[in-house]
Amino acid sequence: MTKFSTNARPSNPRPAALARWLWAVALLVIWVIAVGGITRLTESGLSITEWRPVSGVLPPLNEADWVAEFEKYKQIPEYREINLGMSLAGFKAIFFWEWLHRILGRLVGMALVVPLVWYAWRRAIPAGYGPRLLALAALVGMQGAIGWWMVASGLEYRTDVSHFRLAAHLLTALFLLAGLVWTARDLRVLAQDSRAQPARLTGFGIGVIAVLFVQLLLGAWVAGLNAGYVASTWPSMNDHFVPEGIDWSGGVWMALTNDPFLIHFLHRWWSWVAALLLLLLARALSRRGASTEARLLILVVAVQMALGILTVVTGVSMWIAVSHQVVGGLLVAITAAALHRLGRRPA
């Protein structure tokens, strides 16, 4: 079992330094989320057909290596059915985004694990935080495995990845982000008061998380099914409130989880439920004296909804859609910080 103490060094907890470190890692996660959005929207995710955690750090270094990678890509359905005839230059363009996404994922892992080992050796981790930090590090490793599991779903029989696996990949990243923010806030409070106890989730907080989880899941499915393209009008969908074209033939559950028209519709209107809960959260923050945090939360909710509408009416403009995904990540981080504020316990 890994130990987070040693007799070789005096105990020297440094919660403020650890909090700054975790905030820096959280920013890296948001960066990865941004590049992941670009990777998806440029259809680049299947350009690297192998998972090589170590040797995959280096891209092809000469023309022969590029040709070899391209030949591997030519064996999968996406090339044969969608990109047949793609040039080597075109392949290099999509390869770049997937390679960068994977490199940034490794960077997040290094940024979390290396300092964790250093702080543990220096006995700078406050009592009770070692297991939590280990869990966050393990979550990064699991995220890499989920990413490959997602990619593998599109290598043999499909021309894209499974939207279920894509959702698992994105939601795990957002859960990691929330965990980093929550732990950083706990450590920051501890730095200010050595008697402070970790915050806890309130019943209201659990409700906010449940509603936000549904919205994020629907958003991931919209992305995975390319459901954003099925309608480019708002608030109606192709001149109808409830869109035509929903396929109910496989039953309600099949439609709820696989039909792009229905999932797009649900993502649009569930956002108002999520917004209402987040506005109530902002009001609760304001009553606790955190008016600045409350205003920030309201601003980000408004920006996120505006970006969602713009994504639709522009026919999924890439940079607007990427901004929508990034602000979604920021919204998760700010919500985690807000729920932490509500869940603080007295020393």
UniProtKB/TrEMBL annotation:
Catalytic activity of the protein: Fe(II)-heme o + 2 A + H2O = Fe(II)-heme a + 2 AH2
- Which HAMAP family does the record match to this protein? HemeA_synth_type2 (MF_01665)
The gene for this chain is: ctaA
Assembly and binders: Interacts with CtaB.
According to its UniProt record, where is this protein mainly located? membrane
Binding locations of heme: H267, H324
Q: Which branch of life, at top level?
A: Bacteria
- Output this protein's name: Heme A synthase
Instruction: Could you list this entry's UniProt keywords, alphabetically sorted.
Output: Cell membrane, Heme biosynthesis, Iron, Membrane, Metal-binding, Oxidoreductase, Transmembrane, Transmembrane helix
**Which InterPro entries does the record associate with it?**
COX15/CtaA_fam, HemeA_Synthase_type2
Write down the species: Sphingopyxis witflariensis
UniProt keyword Metal-binding present:
yes
- The top EC class is oxidoreductase
Molecular function terms, GO-annotated: heme A synthase activity; metal ion binding
| EC number of the protein | 1.17.99.9
What this chain does, per the entry, is described as: Catalyzes the conversion of heme O to heme A by two successive hydroxylations of the methyl group at C8. The first hydroxylation forms heme I, the second hydroxylation results in an unstable dihydroxymethyl group, which spontaneously dehydrates, resulting in the formyl group of heme A.
Q: What is its subcellular localisation?
A: Cell membrane; Membrane
Question: What is an annotated GO biological process for this record, any one?
Answer: heme A biosynthetic process
TM helices/strands, residue ranges: 21-41, 103-121, 133-151, 163-182, 203-224, 269-285, 297-320, 326-343
| PANTHER family for this protein | CYTOCHROME C OXIDASE ASSEMBLY PROTEIN COX15 (PTHR23289), CYTOCHROME C OXIDASE ASSEMBLY PROTEIN COX15 HOMOLOG (PTHR23289:SF2)
Q: In which pathway does it act?
A: Porphyrin-containing compound metabolism; heme A biosynthesis; heme A from heme O: step 1/1
Q: Which cofactor does it need?
A: heme b
The UniProt entry lists membrane topology as: Multi-pass membrane protein
* Family label: Belongs to the COX15/CtaA family. Type 2 subfamily.
The entry's cellular-component GO terms read: plasma membrane
